[in-house]
Amino acid sequence: MATSSILTNVVIEDPKKAEAFVDALEKSSQDPVWKPSAPSIPILDSVEELRRFLGRKRN
After folding, report:
1. Which residues have C-beta within 8 Å of that of residue 57, sequence separation ≥ 6?
2. Burial of 54 (0-12, 13-18, 19+ CB in 10 A)
3. Angle at alpha carbon of residue 56, lines to 39 and 48, rounded to 5°
4. Distance CA 43, CA 16 (A)
5. Would you give per-residue pLDDT tens digits along the chain (59 residues)?
């Protein structure tokens, strides 16, 4: 796991700071993964759509 090597040298002696750190880790794991609102590459389902798309690029 990638975080195991990152957290190897982390020492938190204050219980409040340790709890805040754990809470932050838990919260970050519950955040939804970001997804773009629209695909950057158009998905063309038909030959006509492909022809229109390529026709616009030429002109």
Report:
1. none
2. exposed
3. 75
4. 50
5. 455 667 677 788 999 999 999 998 888 888 677 777 776 777 888 999 888 888 876 54
